[in-house]
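Amino acids appear as letters; backbone shape is given numerically. Here is one record.
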Amino acid sequence: MEAREAVRLLPNIPTYNNLAEQLLFTNRLEEAKVVFEEAKARGIDNLLLRQERYLLAFLQGDNAAMQEQLSWAMATPEGKAWALLQPGNIAIYHGRFRVAQNLYSVAQSYSHWSAANPPDEVLVHTVLGYAETGNPVRARQAAERALSTGPNGPRKHLIAVILARAGAVDEAESIAKSLDQEFPRNTLLQNFELPTIRAAIELHKGQPARAIEILQPALRYEFSTFGYLRLYPAYLRGLAYLQLGQGREAAAEFQKMVDHPGILQDLITAPLCHLQLGRAQAMMGDKAAARKSYEDFLTIWKDADPDIPIYQQAKAEYARLQ
């Protein structure tokens, strides 16, 4: 691995962070842990490495190590704003939206961002979370407020995806057209982000085959680790196959996500892909596998807000598998 050689030749924060990131993204968690320990032993330490160490601890279910990184960050001016956001993100991951709102309010008071213009991290966890879990009205309202603040290109594509998933297809189409005209030579936008927006629009229109076709260019960039829509084309493609009644093809897309927790990390699609995999397996007639996938989701969401529509649906569907 080139990243290991870079650490050997020039052991510093960027090379250690790059190596640790690559190991996280490829689910080589114990190796990543050794890298962090080695960097620490050498006195190589900063917020960036602590953030990656926090994600490793999250993926390993190590609450003590997670808290250790947050405590370290809280003691630094540049780290406190980040540290205050993380408990809210984790609450959303577990389906605890009400708790998350209270936690985010603490971060908001410290960093002085407005409810209409939250950080991207909050936008993707909370607002996309609303859209994906059955609260499209709230998702649309929050996305429209964020849009009214005049976001830049990268933020606009995220808002467009949220709007499309919330059913505001005209607004999403308008943003997609604007981005297309503004950044015609942006490779990632043209082949990953715009197809994702347009596929979400087609899904809402009840055109799953068209959504799958639109997502073809994204296959090449499927495992891109840039931004907050990591593996999101696979999620949309899986939903499209579910709409078409093609359980085996849907299962392959969601399994791809389940197999890469280091890429998904604490995104809302990380727990949801277990549920969608269960739905695909049930469609295939594999009840035993479906029960296991539903149980994986329901375990992650064991303390979720009871009135979340997708959570209620999941429990009812699981009961029918018994």
